[in-house]
Amino acid sequence: MLFANKIRQLREEKQLLQRQLATVLEIDTPMFSKIERGDRRSKREQVMILAEILQVCKDELLALWLADQVMAVVADEKEIARKAWEMVNNNLNGKSNVNKNRQYR
């Protein structure tokens, strides 16, 4: 709930109401409340709008949003998730992510 916590913090700092942000996002207030509690995921387009309204770096909010997306997908697969993360990290760093002698089971 990295993203949810951050948008709640930013909204409260700006003294904005949930209904105000819900209106800008063109959703109802209960839906925004669910997003802010982490019970519902927002769309990428909504993240971009929130970044603008809350005056925060779009990349920062997108990174938190994406981290939550990844955590939701791998929540029940912690050991495999670690191995997958290692592969992704190696790939992003330009290293080979495939070790032909190593088998994952």
Automatic annotation (TrEMBL):
- Entries under SMART domains matching the protein: HTH_XRE
MF terms from GO for this chain are: DNA binding
HTH cro/C1-type domain boundaries: 7-61
Q: Which Pfam families match?
A: HTH_31
- The protein in question is named HTH cro/C1-type domain-containing protein
